[in-house]
Amino acid sequence: MNKLNHVAIIMDGNGRWGLKKKKSRNYGHLNGIKTVENVIKNSIIQQIPYLTLYTFSTENWRRPENEINFLFDLIRKSLKRKLKKIIKENIRVNIIGKRKGLPKDIIKIIKLIEKKTIKNRKITLNIALNYGSKEEIINACKNIAPKNVKNININSFEKELYTKNIPDPDILIRTGGTRRLSNFLLWQLAYSEIFFVDKLWPDFNGNDFIKIVNKFKKIKRNFGKI
Length: 226
Prior knowledge:
By secondary structure, this protein is an alpha/beta fold. It has a single domain (6-132, 168-218), classed as Undecaprenyl pyrophosphate synthetase (3-Layer(aba) Sandwich), CATH 3.40.1180. Helices cover 42% and strands 16% of the residues. It has seven helices and six strands; from the N terminus they run E-H-H-E-H-E-H-E-H-H-E-E-H. The chain has helices spanning 14-20, 25-45, 65-88, 104-117, 133-144, 154-158, 206-218; strands at residues 6-10, 50-57, 91-96, 123-131, 171-174, 193-196. Strand 3, helix 4 and strand 4 form a beta-alpha-beta unit. Helix 2 (25-45) packs parallel to helix 3 (65-88). The mean pLDDT is 95.
């Protein structure tokens, strides 16, 4: 039975869910928070050490300004309101992505929550914020070039990624019916088992998550071998 160390999720379908309910896209984002809390809870129950959520991509800046502002307001309010609960539940929060360009108060909140949770060990919640995998890889190349490393290998390169010291995802889940990676963890997902789910993110529930976890545990993983 496969050991599950890391689950990564593309939380797709919030906006479409809101419109489907004859309300706004922002209404969908608001309801998506409930699913986030549910998945974190089930990850802890399943004793999964790492959970990575694709929260805001480098391409999401192309969305309407009112939606971007709502998303950041939702992020700042959620982190502030849940900080005590996060600490109490022994959750470590780690932000991956490009911090330059983020609102100053968001950067301040990020630093605070990372500092407050750094010793927590039950689960590490990686929040991919202003994250783009191509930008991450280019940034890693820029970091390693001045060091004049003679023997660049996988290990030395991975130390320059946002996910250094974090195991690669065993599972990628993408909700919303779309079947693509959308510039998410392209390096890290090389041997991940990918599960595309037709349900929109706010409709994704604990049973859906557990079914995927159980299915993964029974998969024969060869990593290039027979």
